[in-house]
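User
Please review the sequence:
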Amino acid sequence: MRIDAQGLHYRELNALIHSAIARGVKKITLDNVNGQRYIGAGLTDPEIEMVINGTPGNDLAVFMNSPTLIVNSNAQDGIGNTMNQGKIIVYGNAGDIVGYSMRGGEIYIKGNAGYRVGIHMKSYYNSHPAIIIGGTAGDFLGEYMAGGRIIVLGMDKQPDETIVGNYCGTGMHGGTIYIHGNVAEHQLGKEVKKTRVTQEDFHILNEYLNQFCTYFSVNKKLFRKNDFVKLIPYSHRPYGNLYAY
């Protein structure tokens, strides 16, 4: 089913989407999307696949549980906000706070992402959320991260451009960040340290790299184990000495 979003208020567009799903529609294509918010909010059916032609607005897939959303352009801020399960595949760039408080599912971004990606990201039992960024990420990547995985590949970056910004991992107390390339010590938050990528780590990485390379037609041979660095927190309770009990 196709829905033309041109000129529609975000409430109108989302009402049409939910109406179609209530009638049993599983495959939806949205054309002429231009900043409408909350697309995919709270959807639960794993059989739903939504293709978005245009640029969706903030909070794409907020509280989403299982569907797959494919964005054939850029995406704005807050995609995957408090997402529980499902997939978001973005064929362009994404804005700030991608995966805010994300608890499960996977987000694949072909291009760059903005600031505070993965802030407050967390794992839940055996659910490990993942954000895979093909390009670069801005400052405060993984801020207060409590679980999950972030992978930054740094593809097509300029020679004088850093793969991640400053304050990477500030307040991080769980989860793992993998960076394809180097990151300077001064770019790191004081709560994280660099370590080597193990064979077990690379096995985990390969699961996401295989999907990333399939979605975006990228040669997987570009990514070798020894070219990655791993960021982990020093402590699961970095601010414990600030409390008075």
In short: The helical segments are 10-22, 199-216. The mean pLDDT is 95. The chain has two helices and eleven strands.
